[in-house]
Amino acid sequence: MSQNNILERLAALDTNTVSDALDFLKLQGAVYGLRPLWDCPKIAGRASTVQLGPKTGTAPTSHLITPVISAVTTDDRILVIAGGLEGISCWGDIIADASKVKGIRGTIVDGMSRDIDGSRDVGFPVYGLGVTMISARNRMVQTDSGTPILVRGVTVKQDDYVIADRCGTVFIPAGRIEEVLDLGERIDRRQNLMVQEVRAGKPVCEVMHDSQFDAINNIKTSELGKICGAIYALNGNPKKASPEDEELVALFADSDTPGVSDALDRLGIPGQVFNIIPLTHYKKVTVGPAFTVRYVPASNQPGSVGDFIDDVAVGDVVVIDNGGRTDCTVWGDIMTQYAGLRDIAGTVIDGVCRDVNRAIDDNYPLFTAGRWMRTGKDRVQVGGVNEPVGIGKVRVEPRDIVVADANGVVIVPRARAREVAEVARTIERSEAGIREMITDGATIAEAREKLGYHTLQRKA
């Protein structure tokens, strides 16, 4: 098989599917934490490995990575850089320009980058741990290249295959690439069939019952039409919101999380969820009663990972306690698709999600501790539904009111929802008054003093 054909097939997949194929084959390769450092496109190519280390001598050295860039002669390369130091950059705009000129497809940095706007401006994809402003000059040196390196616990060899997208980065051993591609394409066909089944209305408990890919080898593209033609249509979510749910949700219709957070502080109620952030910058506020789910490590005969969603009512927010685990996901594109079809308001996860393109494109509200592509199937299972759970250091009872937006997530105890909503409205009216006063020419100190800004969140 030609190299171009292999890379075309790899690029047609995503990191979720490739990660699943590696799981099935018991291969390591999916790494957590190496994400796009700007909104860059998916990349697929072959690894040119670079090892960095701390500089110990005083003699001048060549700028790290530049010899590797100069040596590239083909257009299939992705630079894979190991040995980064916390807070120190090992990538910048000048070498991004040089790499772009050489036809390099992108860079994976097990470390930090600076001048990220420069990489973005020339359209050069960079994946890494984060950004910094601190130069590597006189702090780091290149110690080797073209040799095996360790990236986030995975050994990457020269010429191994790499795929990276919004969910993260996956490495594939060169000697197993055709096997991984064949299986990945079968998984992709199976996943596409599952999405079509969900879209057509088949209950997700049936669609996602296959926890060990039992059906993958039996699904062919030519069979999809026949199978999908037999699926019945969905007539909406039969589980409707109760009148009380609708009333409590309406109380927070004009609030946001900062206002509700201040109200919780004033009333002495802990409810601000720690370390859970929106998947993207949502412009509207998500409000709904909590449908709680608790995950536990999988048993020897793995249990369900997603059947609960058939019991979630219109307008509910699914609140998932996965113990803050970032090593496997509990939510992906099929769940997103199904939740959207059933008018579920959103999902909050003390853990990670995957298939984020679907959620972003569908504008489905997701609030999580991060994103990664590694499946939770056979790693976790549902341990309980509609029982108290812990999310970001906050206790959540079933049917508590969830308020989530671009700032984060807060939980309002159901029994105190009316009280919290009234205090939030009072605070928001005071802040609106401050804004009006400063627009009319008052100083911010005068406006804050008059309307008691510094005491708004203080306990009464």
TrEMBL record:
Molecular function GO terms recorded: metal ion binding
Binding site for substrate: 332-335, 354
Keyword Lipoprotein among UniProt keywords: no
Gene3D superfamilies xrefs: Ribonuclease E inhibitor RraA/RraA-like
InterPro entries: RraA/RraA-like, RraA/RraA-like_sf
Keywords linked to the UniProt accession: Magnesium, Metal-binding
A Pfam family per the record: RraA-like
Signal peptide: none
Positions contributing to Mg(2+) binding: 355
Record keyword Magnesium present: yes
Superkingdom, natural source: Eukaryota
Cofactor(s) listed: Mg(2+)
Protein name according to UniProt: Demethylmenaquinone methyltransferase family protein
Species: Penicillium daleae
